[in-house]
Specification:
81 residues; alpha+beta; 3 helices; 38% helix
Length: 81
Amino acid sequence: MFAVTPLEPAPHVLSHKCTPGEFAMLVERLGIVPAPHMARASWVALETFGALPRGEIERLLRGSYSLVVAKLPKKTQAGLA
């Protein structure tokens, strides 16, 4: 799992994994908070999609996917490629 979004109205519209450096930078921005229960693993939560420009959200989601795939066993990684 590299990102989570609710299907019904919720306090956060998107949560995703990021690097510890990105985490520190992002939680300082308005509309972005440490993700409940997942902040210790460097996950952030967006309170609105307007908290970040669309291009930055896309870049962060690609990075989140890469972080998660890098932790998978090599055989599983090869199956995804």
